[in-house]
């Protein structure tokens, strides 16, 4: 149902032995293991969502999908233009994001809907919000120029902290979506990396 392929179901189970069987041993048991959903979501993206921090089997299964990502490779896009790295960060799965980035996933690419890796990290719920944002800010996989571009996109100059209607900009909207965590330390960290062009707002 919901356009979910059998390969995606295997990724959802996140069992390393089953994943290995599907990808490496007996493809006859599962035709087209890399077939996407109707919205373009790949098994690799599903595996990235399921690979929660500290969940060893799921991370091992993700590693197997990374080695065999299917058409489009590790940076294949769904209908929104999201890549596996966006899905991992939006779920707060920083260990999964690290596996993807180490394997060559591009952190500096913007999705078709305008979502950057930093914005995806800001969508993570609860404690995952701070972990994901900090992971992007500290990632060795981003050049300083790329990091500044990501920060500038979500953290405009102080006089631009609100849009013309007085609404919240991306960074403020993300902060106010986090009812179960203290966003202030994360925003202060973001401001400290913005090289003086942005000041953390009072929230």
Q: How much helix, percentage-wise, in residues? A: 40-55%
Strand content: under 5%
Could you tell me how far the N terminus lies from the C terminus, measured between alpha carbons in angstroms?
42 Å
On the 0 to 100 scale, the average pLDDT is: 76
Uncertain segments: 157-169
Secondary-structure content class: mainly alpha
Rg, nearest Å: 18 Å
Total helices: the number is 11
Main sheet: strands, sense, barrel: none
Please write the string of helix (H) and strand (E) elements. Answer: HHHHHHHHHHH
What characteristic shape results from the CA principal axes? globular
Number of beta-strand segments: 0
Overall description:
This protein is mainly alpha-helical and 203 residues long. Helices cover 49% and strands 0% of the residues. The protein contains eleven helices and no strands. The chain has helices at residues 6-13, 16-25, 43-50, 56-67, 84-90, 94-102, 117-122, 127-138, 144-154, 170-176, 184-192. The longest helix is centred in the N-terminal third of the chain and has 12 residues, at 56-67. It is globular and about 50 Å long.
List keywords for this structure.
mainly alpha; 203 residues
Secondary structure topology:
Elements: H1 6-13, H2 16-25, H3 43-50, H4 56-67, H5 84-90, H6 94-102, H7 117-122, H8 127-138, H9 144-154, H10 170-176, H11 184-192
Summary, kept brief:
This protein has 203 residues and is mainly α.
């Amino acid at each position: 149902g919901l356009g979910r392929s059998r390969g995606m179901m295997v990724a959802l189970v996140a069992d390393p032995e089953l994943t290995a069987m599907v990808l490496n041993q007996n493809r006859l048991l599962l035709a087209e293991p890399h077939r996407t959903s109707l919205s373009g979501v790949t098994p690799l993206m599903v595996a990235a969502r399921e690979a929660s921090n500290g969940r060893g089997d799921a991370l091992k299964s993700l590693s197997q999908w990374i080695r065999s990502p299917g058409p489009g490779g590790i940076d294949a896009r769904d209908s929104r233009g999201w890549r596996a790295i966006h899905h991992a960060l939006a779920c707060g799965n920083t260990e999964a994001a690290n596996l993807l980035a180490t394997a060559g996933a591009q952190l500096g690419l913007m999705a078709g809907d305008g979502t950057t890796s930093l914005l995806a990290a800001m969508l993570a719920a609860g404690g995952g919000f701070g972990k994901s944002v900090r992971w992007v800010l500290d990632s060795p996989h981003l050049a300083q120029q790329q990091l500044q571009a990501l920060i500038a996109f979500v953290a405009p100059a102080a006089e631009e902290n609100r849009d013309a209607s007085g609404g919240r900009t991306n960074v403020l909207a993300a902060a106010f979506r986090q009812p179960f965590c203290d966003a202030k330390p994360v925003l202060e960290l973001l401001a400290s990396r913005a090289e003086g062009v942005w000041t953390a707002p009072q929230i």
